[in-house]
Automatic annotation (TrEMBL):
The gene is rps15. One of its GO terms (cellular component) is chloroplast. GO terms for biological process: translation. It comes from the Eukaryota. HAMAP family: Ribosomal_uS15_B. Belongs to the universal ribosomal protein uS15 family. This is Small ribosomal subunit protein uS15c.
Length: 90
């Protein structure tokens, strides 16, 4: 299995202080999503990991929608830093 190293967008001091912040949680979910995606490229029939990936995607989506409602500027900065697409609004 190939190990991927992900660049930390949030500095070490911010990680220590703000572990409960929305930005940190989205950052952690994004890293988990990237790891699971690379795992699923090798193991296509790992259905439990697929289910876990869908659950994490849903959690991240809910956090991002909360952040976009509360503070649109922080939301825009976060999605640009993490290089993820903007969610569609209904």
């Amino acid at each position: 299995m190939v190990k991927n190293s992900f660049i930390s967008v949030i500095s070490q001091e911010e990680k220590e202080e703000n572990r409960g912040s929305v930005e940190f949680q989205v950052f952690r979910f994004t890293n988990k999503i990237r790891r699971l995606t690379s795992h699923l490229e090798l193991h296509r029939k790992d259905y439990f990991s697929q289910r876990g990936l869908r659950k994490i995607l849903g959690k991240r989506q809910r956090l991002l929608s909360y952040l976009s409602k509360k503070n649109r500027i922080r939301y825009k900065e976060l999605i640009s830093q993490l290089d993820i697409r903007e969610s569609k609004t209904r």
